[in-house]
Amino acid sequence: MKEKRSHKMTSTPPTMGFLKSAEVSVLLMSILLCIYSNLASSNLDCMECRLEKNSIFSREGKPVYQCIGCCFSRAYPTPLQAMQTMAVPKNITSEATCCVAKHSHQFLFQTIEHTIPVRNHTECHCSTCQYHKI
């Protein structure tokens, strides 16, 4: 009897191992690029702590200035010795400072329906964030 070969039968091509390796490399590069772009954009999105004119509350002849920008912030693993003294242990410890006003003056901003208290800042610096203070 004569042996019949089918065109549908294929064997694994020798390039299969190379393709898997290339896929892993592309995936790894994508992950690294994503992490790098997030780190780079987080540094670019926020400028240094400074005083800036608030266009919403400013009126002609009565400018309103408020603090805007970023300050120091970091997170790190909580040291074991510190974690043992915590009432509620947390794996991550964070430190942060916020852009806050050294001095400010409050005034009342009148709208058609409401009176809104607004603070006009005179100078800014990096200090303890207000929501962290007790």
Automatic annotation (TrEMBL):
GO terms for cellular component: extracellular space; follicle-stimulating hormone complex. Pfam families: Hormone_6. It is found in: Secreted. GO terms for molecular function: follicle-stimulating hormone activity. It comes from the Eukaryota. Keywords: Disulfide bond, Glycoprotein, Hormone, Secreted. The keyword Glycoprotein applies. Its main location: secreted. Shared alpha chain of heterodimeric glycoprotein hormones. These hormones bind specific receptors on target cells that in turn activate downstream signaling pathways. Involved in gametogenesis and steroidogenesis. Heterodimer. Glycoprotein hormones are heterodimers composed of a common alpha chain described here and a unique beta chain which confers their biological specificity to the different hormones. Belongs to the glycoprotein hormones subunit alpha family. This is Glycoprotein hormones alpha chain. It comes from Oryzias sinensis.
